[in-house]
Amino acid sequence: MSDWSGFDRRGAPPPIFVPAYLPPEALAGVRTRRVFALILDLVLVSILSFALWVVLAVLTFGLSLLLLPPLFPLVAFFYNGLTISSWRMATPGMQAMDLEMRLVDGQRTPFLNAAVHAVLFYFSTMFLPIFLVSFFAEGKRCLHDILAGVIVIRRPI
């Protein structure tokens, strides 16, 4: 029998808090893969932000260079929100690392949860010790995962 994650859990009781009942292979290597996925996604968001900056500068004849707010946070917000809430349930970097993000009950992550997760993640990068929570939390979840109500797992094969 296969559950929402695609991993086989024969004889397991119905999940109350899903991360407690995930099989070990669903979380194997998730932390390392998330770091590499983050690097890929940061490169992609930087490229998208720069391209948007150039397009806006050309369209406004350079006037937007004086008035433009920082584009990176805005692009990252929509990049994470739209890609994680899509049918693939992952950013391109996460897809490359065979990861996907779901709500803790196994449902697809809605746009708002995915976008809030991104905001919390970028906020938590200012306080790096916060990432140590993943070493102690159930399901290898970071603090921003817990606050957004999501879990990152390996994509089932």
TrEMBL record:
Keywords: Membrane, Transmembrane, Transmembrane helix
Chain ranges passing through the membrane: 35-59, 71-90, 111-137
Keyword Transmembrane helix: yes
Transmembrane in keyword set: yes
Coiled coil: none
InterPro entries recorded: RDD (IPR010432)
Pfam families membership: RDD
Signal peptide, first to last residue: none
Membrane topology label: Multi-pass membrane protein
Domain annotation RDD: ranges: 32-149
Name listed for the protein in its UniProt record: RDD family protein
Species whose genome carries this gene: Methylocapsa polymorpha
